[in-house]
Amino acid sequence: MKKKMKIPTWIWAVVGCFLLVPLKAENESLWQVHTHNLHASYAPAPMASGCIGILPGKEPFRIEQVVLNHVFDAAAPGTVSRVMRGINPFGLNMKVDGETVDTTCIEGWNQTVDMRKAVHRTGFQIGRKAHVISDLRALRGLPYSGLISVQVEALTDITIEVRCGMEIPDDYGESTVYYRELDADSTRLHLLEAKAVSARGAKQVAAASAFLLEDETTSELSFEEATKELCLNVSIKKGETFSFSLVGSICSSRDFFDPYNEAERQVVYAVHEGQEQLVGAHERLWNELWQSDIRIEGDDDAQRLVRFALFNLYSSCRAGSRLSIPPMGLSSQFYNGHIFWDTELWMYPPLLLLQPELAKSMLDYRIDRIGPARKKAMAYGYRGVMFPWESDDTGEEATPTFALTGVFEHHITADVGIACWNYYRVTRDTVWLKREGFPLLREIADFWVSRVVRNADESYSIVGVTGADEYANGVTDNAFTNASASLALEYACRAGIACGEYVPPIWKEVSQGLRILQFENGVTREHATYQGETIKQADVNLLAYPLGKISDPEQQRKDLAYYAERIDQQNGPMMSYAIFCVQYARMGDAEKAWEMFRRCYLPNWRPPFGVLSETPASNNPYFMTGAGGLLQAVLNGFCGLQVTEEGIVQLPSVLPPHWKKVTVTGVGIERKTYFCTRK
Asked: Beta strand 52-56 with 47-48: parallel, antiparallel or unpaired?
């Protein structure tokens, strides 16, 4: 199908040597996670490009769903917005000698996620007839597209039939599937296409797919009208190998004025590029991302775990997209695909260290939605900006009305402000600070000044909030809310001074006057009426890290000892123990830090690949928020990295007893390397 000159692979390899510093030679197994047991528990590992997420299953060629980034419609009339599943253009199935290929007739099944190359591979054998390898990529270089590449090795003379259909989920109402042939620069294309309108009419979505064949003369390609499927038929002699690929693109009216023609256009482009070029671009872009990596010596299991967390975060975002990451990334519709504090407090910090441009996209998401945040503040009687607890693409409050978090959980506005100043501290981009950073921080400061209540002793309180501990609603002087608001006000003052702008004295007064309460025994009190009840997750303990409001090690130990066992062990999310790990590591307690590190992921680890679930009792992977916490345990805890007024510094810390060394590459805008060794 391709008429242009084919560039030899060796030329791309030579060019790549000049474009990038090559990755250090390393055991390839440390870049891979595997499974070989078809009948064991199975939590799928998503493959994503930052624009779409593709969820493969264990069945041969099976794609469970495609998730679209920030494409929303209501789940039902009168409900809040929900991120949409895309039309699935990867509906492949195969017959060999007339027999359907499924899990009942295969053996030697295995799957591998190769993180370095960002490919999900499935292999199996069909009796004594054929050996099959199928590779799935969510293309980094063509981010609204995926590529499935299949290789069939005949063990005897066989005929195969491959069918491709469109799967349209119930997110849609009206839909159409159709076939189109066209000539593009003397290339004959056979396209399967679909278009649909979301069930509530908010979005139009289109998909297109086509087979990529090295030699069309050896196969027969047709369209079956009755089933709306592309059909590929070929005979293969014993010992021969037949290869083909399927490329599919999914576009929406959220991203394109004309999604129908754009989906087709991208498939036409992919066919002309060909598999080799598409894969080459995909791997080069991933190689760029992997210049920022975490390398652990002495614990191969931890290496794969940590790298898999990094791989999933990298997959969920794109530089320049001006989009953020929902709690489950692009793996599911859980939490409706909304944006929470999960972004600023959990996922953003490791990306700010390793991929500042990805972190900037997450901050851009908030900056683009200042208007709706300003309207929300006004609607609730406040000044400045009041960011929603759950944000969809509009930037308005999208929390279900039965959840009190949407009414009371206000610390999100402080979390955004802290992320804003930390971006400046890492990049020292004064142009950005004057144009975007300080204007955002100024409105955040105005909100908190209008939100506080002045007490008789001239201190300040915040009344009627939900803190990080979401089991306590409508409380006064929540420790995390007060501390994060105080820090956001302090950062607004610093930003104003850096920009030469007027800083109202009330900002500093409120920042220094917000109350942090204690019990009589000196333990920091979670809120004014807290009496030791079970909490959902770390709240008080966040004051030591990441906020840095409590620096005394003895105070940290008191708070850790008191709150660690009050966390809900079944339904609490996994990040709390990552925070405990950071603090113990920085205090030099390697054994306790290692214990907390294991507690922050082991109950949430799901076979066979090790995707992470939100809680020990849930099964909703992949939990990107938990990945962010896990990475902070390593980067900020064991490695001691910290964002300060002087930029990124390395504080004293310790490694787990059996880890030999950790190397963190590509840190900050200067792409520095940090080493951490066992003491």
From this structure: antiparallel
Q: Is the pLDDT of residue 586 over 50?
A: yes
For residue 238, give Cα distances in angstroms to 109, 155, 329.
Answer: 21, 5, 44
Name the amino acid, one letter, at 589: D
Helical ranges in 616-675 per DSSP H: 624-632
Which tokens hold the place of 608? 């066979």
Could you confirm whether 283 is annotated as catalytic?
Answer: no
Three-class secondary structure of residue 446 per DSSP: helix
**Can you tell me which residue has the tokens 């490695």?**
639
pLDDT tens digit string along 65-79?
999 999 999 988 989
User: Is the peptide bond prior to 563 cis by the omega test (within 30 degrees of 0)?
Assistant: no
Tokens, residue 190: 């056979």
**Can you tell me the mean pLDDT for 515-523?**
97
**Cα(472)–Cα(640) distance, rounded to whole angstroms?**
32
Contact present, 157 and 238 (Cβ < 8 Å):
yes
Distance, in Å, from the CA atom of 439 to the CA atom of 436, rounded to the nearest integer, reads 6
- 601-640 burial, b at 16+ Cβ within 10 Å, e below that, comes to bebbbbebbbbbbbbbeeebbbbbbbbbbbbbbbbbbbbb
Of the residues 614, 645, 646, 670, only one is catalytic, namely 614
User: Which candidate, 668, 73, 626, 678, places its Cα nearest to that of 306?
Assistant: 626
> Using the 8-state DSSP alphabet, how is residue 155 labeled?
S
| 297, pLDDT greater than 60 | yes
Please, which residues bridge with residue 661 across strands?
A: 297, 677
Say whether 554 is catalytic.
no
Question: Tell me, what's the pLDDT at 678?
Answer: 84
Regarding pTM above 0.70, the answer is yes
User: Rounded CA gap, 499 and 508, in Å?
Assistant: 17
Give me the catalytic one of 262, 397, 443, 470.
Answer: 470
Task: Flag whether pLDDT at 7 surpasses 70.
Answer: no
Q: Which amino acid is at 394?
A: T
